[in-house]
Amino acid sequence: MQILLISGISGSGKSVALNVLEDAGYYCVDNLPPSLLPGLIKTLSQEDHTNAAISIDSRSAHLLSGLPQTLQDLRDLGHDVRVLFLTASTDSLVARFSETRRSHPLSHRLAMELASNVDLSLVECIEEEREILAGIQNLAHVIDTTDLRANQLRAWVKVVVQIQRSPLTLMFESFAFKRGVPLDADLVFDVRMIPNPHYDPLLRPLTGRDEPVIRFLDNQEMAQDMYLDILNFITKWLPAFKQDNRSYLTVAIGCTGGQHRSVYMVEKLTKYFQKTEQVLIRHRRL
After folding, report:
1. Is 58 annotated for ligand binding?
2. Any signal peptide, and if so, which residues (predicted)?
3. Is 11 annotated as a binding residue?
């Protein structure tokens, strides 16, 4: 059975992801206590279900310590177990809670634990939740949903589901520094020092996927030197990341606007590494 465990920070889009999987035919369960996971999977297997998506969040905080072993036990039984973790910047999460006018799921519980009649602030709850879920995040493929549209998140979740299971999936992601560094990045490279096609009026409306921009950057010695340096760094250290039992490695490459140089570099690196590795690609600003 393919089992996709969905977790993440409240407000980051877990419900959107779960709805995508339900539409794709997954048997979905929201907010399942981790201790009930083995029994659920056993029952679903007996009923011949082949795909299951289970959401586990911070409301089961006291039961999360045993989750890594539970996941390993399920893998030992032959199940394809993957973990997807959604997160977002604190400012983005605060804005989303403000729009929905809902309280954070931890606010009342934390206040009770502190024997206080005053609920914790939203920011305090978000930071506490990050601490609670840090262990799950380290096991997962992380998607930073800051500034992502719902349709974009739906598409990315579908890609994660469709990829074949391998020792490590290499993710290349372009982004705009003016929007901030993605929270899901494991490695970050800055290509803002490369000559910018934005200042050419003919290239400005194009992207790093378009042939005129590619030709422009192919002719920049600095761009080629940077490409080779990043390629050699990843090639050297990728075996070590694989030995560390990682399932995903996200390499984020940023330029000012996330439109030309970073997109060009991500496309070029993807073309090289997809010959030997399982590779995914994301462009946050396109």
Report:
1. yes
2. none
3. yes
> Annotated binding residue at 59?
yes
Residue 60 counted as an annotated binding residue: yes
Q: 209-254 pLDDT, tens per residue?
A: 999 999 999 999 999 999 999 999 999 999 999 988 788 899 999 9
User: Binding residue per annotation — 41?
Assistant: no
Query: What pLDDT, in 10s, does the model give residues 24-39?
Result: 999 999 999 999 999 9
Rounded CA-CA distance 11/88 in Å is 8
CA–CA gap between residue 109 and residue 105 (Å, rounded): 8
CB-CB neighbours of 207 under 10 Å: 19
Closest CA to 1 of 58, 74, 105, 83: 74
Give the burial string for 255-268 (b: 16+ CB within 10 Å, else e): bbbbbbbbbbbbbb
Q: Do 179 and 148 contact (CB within 8 A), yes or no?
A: no
**10 labeled part of a ligand binding site:** yes
Q: What is the DSSP letter of 158?
A: H
